[in-house]
Automatic annotation (TrEMBL):
It comes from Candidatus Bealeia paramacronuclearis. The keyword Hydrolase applies. Transmembrane segments: none annotated. Its EC number is 3.1.3.25. Belongs to the inositol monophosphatase superfamily. This is Inositol-1-monophosphatase.
Length: 277
């Protein structure tokens, strides 16, 4: 982790990004320790398919303390603690301390820390860190997107038949209407694409779109802390981010499509016909 930290810092120009990256590294230490002893974690049930662990709460506490220390007047929106108002109403940290909790609790090494910074109605900086693979994805408005010390770009593929897509499957508690809509989207896309993946971390799905590993990611019911950081990382990597009704209000609509230029029009048309009914 030390070598990656040094490389990331060398490429980072913004003090805000330094703060975000350092906070993510610090919170990740505890997650890695707890992941190594996942069978001993204390777990409480929040709802069907939706768990929260002690590790989740510890990670959020570290992120909150580190970010507040650096920018004491910024507001917060966090998965576990909700919204915390402060003096600077124009800036909000949007945090998911452990995106992929179910993976984490089942010993599956695919989860992340996600930190987005919102200014007004726009996400201006984002960090997504996968501590198991030691992959730090980050971006700031106008500065490009990076994976550790390497500039990243979205895929250049233009045909769905060659494309790998990612999505999120609705939980058991999701409304029946939304489950049916998701099934319709699968039926519309599965025959056209090379494959569809459900990996369990929306933040990493977006990071993978930004780095060209996936051609697109969509989900019809998503929380702002899952996607805030990924929005700016995909955009700075040359991608497009829309809500599933064809607009740009991803956080307000709680739905998302992230893809490259070559597939945007076709995917947007297909999914809008299903989700905008």
């Amino acid at each position: 982790m030390r070598e990656t930290t040094r490389n990331v810092r060398a490429l980072t120009k913004s003090p805000l990004l330094n703060v975000m990256i350092n906070a993510a590294f610090k919170a990740a230490r505890g997650l890695v320790r707890d992941f190594g002893e996942v069978e001993h974690l204390q777990v409480s049930r929040k709802g069907p398919g939706d768990f929260v662990s002690v590790a989740d709460k510890k990670s959020e506490k570290i992120l909150f303390e580190e970010l507040k220390k650096a920018r004491p007047d910024f507001c917060f929106l966090m998965e576990e603690s909700g919204r915390i108002e402060n003096k600077d109403k124009d800036h909000t940290w949007i945090i998911d301390p452990l995106d992929g909790t179910s993976n984490f609790l089942h010993g599956i090494p695919h989860f992340s820390i996600s930190i987005g910074l919102q200014k007004g109605n726009e996400i201006i900086a984002g960090v997504i860190y996968d501590p198991i693979k030691n992959e730090m994805f980050y971006a700031e408005r106008g500065g490009g997107a990076f994976l550790n010390d390497r500039r990243i770009r979205v895929s250049a593929r233009t045909h769905l038949a060659d494309s790998l897509l990612a999505t999120g499957i609705p939980f058991a508690s999701t409304a029946e209407k939304d489950q049916k809509t998701f099934t319709q989207s699968l039926q519309a896309l599965m025959p056209k694409v090379a494959g569809i993946r459900r990996m369990g971390s929306a933040a990493l799905d977006l990071a993978y779109v930004a780095s060209g590993r996936y051609e697109a990611y969509w989900e019809g019911s998503i929380s702002s802390w899952d996607v805030a950081a990924g929005i700016i990382i995909v955009k700075e990597a040359g991608g497009f981010v829309r809500d599933l009704k064809g607009g740009t209000d991803v956080l307000g609509d709680s739905s998302i499509l992230a893809t490259n230029e070559g597939l945007q029009v076709e995917l947007e048309k297909t999914l809008k016909a299903i989700y905008a009914k």
